[in-house]
Amino acid sequence: MRAATVERSTTPGRVNAVVTTAEHPTARPALDSLRRARELFLTGRQLPDGVPEEIVSAWRRARFLGVRHDVGDAVPERAVRPPESLLLTAARPVLERIAAGLGPGQPALVLTDERLRVLWSTGFARDDLGRPDLSEQAVGHNSAVRALRTRRRAEVHGPEHFLDLWQDVSAVSVPLLAPGTGRILGTVTVASRLCAECGPHPGAPLAEAAASAVEAELLARSRSAERVLLDAYLRAVGEEPGRQGRRAVVALDGRNRLVSEDAARLLSPEGLEALERHTVSLLEAASGVGTEAGGPGSGAGSALAGTGAAADATFQRTRTAADATPQTTRTAADATPQTTRTAADATPQTTRTAADATPQGAGTAARSAPSTSYDIRLPHTAGCSATVTPVLHQGSAIGAVAVLEPVGDAADVSSAGTGGVGLAGRSVPWRHAVARATELARHPGPLLIVGERGTGKTALARELAASPLAADAAEGEIGSWLGQLAQDRALLVRHVERLEQSDTATLNALLETHPDAPLLVTYTPGTPPGPCLQRLLDSLAARSVTLPALRERTEDIRELLTALTPGPVPGQPPLTWTLDALRALERYPWPGNVTELAHVVRTLAETRRATGPVRRAELPDLVREGPARRRLSPMEHAERAAILDALHRNGGNKARTAAALGIARATLYRKLRGYRG
């Protein structure tokens, strides 16, 4: 039979009267039989039938781990109590209120972290359960171990324990789960004298209620901590005195990421992951706060989750030049400039920030708390460095705010602006491609720019080289142009995939004798290249960059529209776009990439007669209707285009469209549904 348990209530501090079942053996032997079986096991003799395999396996694990069953009841002198943590800070007042209502001889309460280290205990647990560590490696099988493994309430009675010390103890444990993430933070255990015949533990409702109350307190504190992190982020994003524009800022707590618009442009997803790993490692190394229960990583409000591998970032402490101004309900404030300390200065310097806040009324009032800032040099591929400041709340680090600064090529690309179509775009894939091309162009040698048709290969090449000579392989032989390379004159060869074989061979020979020739080559992949062209591509592969298709950087479309729109004409308003039209432009896959987008913009600018922003209805049919949701055959593509054209000519009237196409109206509806499905 399965023992009944009381289901956890969704209301903090309350228990529902709903009976469920807990994981227990279907047939638990009598205590005397189990005690005799344990004695036989400890003496190495044959066990009788009927002993639950789960209990025998637990005894075997304890023996394998080297646990002594006859360990004494004295707490080891060298045992170190875990440091103060958010879990303990939240749970202590709750458990102390519960313990105050328990009279002498009543059940004991024990709180552990996720590693089953005892954080707090009261009642007879101080003497009978006086162990600093309840992990299976230290004391063998117990209810806390089982609750942690099953993520459910668990009971262990008397001889089910491995230790002699606990043969007259019954215990029930409930796991503590982090609000929001569900990650296990620790356990609450109620222990008592041995219960007769191992029935459901009478302290189970108490354990459930205590766990619910602790989780409710963690949730309340997590909301407060999240507000503190948000306030610190908003202050960091605010404009700095003497600085133009807003800063690139990322706030991290292991569960949440707050990324400013400038930071999203500057940092790739991989760079963001690296920043988070490095920040966690920095906080562990600098403050000694790891991912212990309730610390950063506990999930109790912040949870800098996961220690990960040791980060290879270079850390350098910095200190702010002035105290931050405390904020209450404002969303941004002036940030204080930071000056880097020398490596020889080994004494940590603290700063005053407004990161530590306590809830007051309906708002969050911030008060100053000491903190230290660190410079992190991220991997070169990230293209930026970060100044990280831990965010403190109630004495614990709940996360960190990182202010990003571009370095090297990223700084050049970030400051390039949108002066022309060749560099227009702030998306991560485009910015990284431009950064690599800029870096390669700084050093002598050829450069291969690869991309689909219309991705902007030629425009980028013209931005990288000052007034290069341009030769288009699609327009004929280019042999007459190749002599310019020997004179150190930059040459742009477009559509190298269309080169005649003789020209390709000449180019290969020239690069062998002049490996640093100022040559820019654009290549559009398509049919497999021949051996001569493949040799050329292989020789240029080490100095190549691939441009992303427009469908891979749709966030750049609005910036491209600004760069592609013709200058204002006297008497005509500038070309602007409705939000609906912009969404249609961003959903369209743009097989012709930037060239196709430029054609749409130019056509609208030349032929449009309406006033006001461009509406979605004015866009070309394929752009307006968006891509088909399934892959269409060439015949279906042609049929769909014909139907959309007819709909446009007939003002969207489906009856007239069907008549014009010579099909039934029901057929038209079916085809439209098929294309959209």
Automatic annotation (TrEMBL):
Q: Where is the composition biased (Polar residues)?
A: 319-353
Q: Which residues form the Sigma-54 factor interaction domain?
A: 432-606
Keywords of this entry: ATP-binding, Nucleotide-binding, Transcription, Transcription regulation
Name of this protein: Regulator
Gene3D superfamilies cross-referenced by the UniProt entry: 1.10.8.60, 3.30.450.40, Homeodomain-like, P-loop containing nucleotide triphosphate hydrolases
- Lineage summary: Bacteria, Bacillati, Actinomycetota, Actinomycetes, Kitasatosporales
| PROSITE patterns, per database record | SIGMA54_INTERACT_4 (PS50045)
Instruction: Please give the organism.
Output: Streptomyces resistomycificus
GO BP: regulation of DNA-templated transcription
User: Has the keyword Phosphoprotein been applied to this entry?
Assistant: no
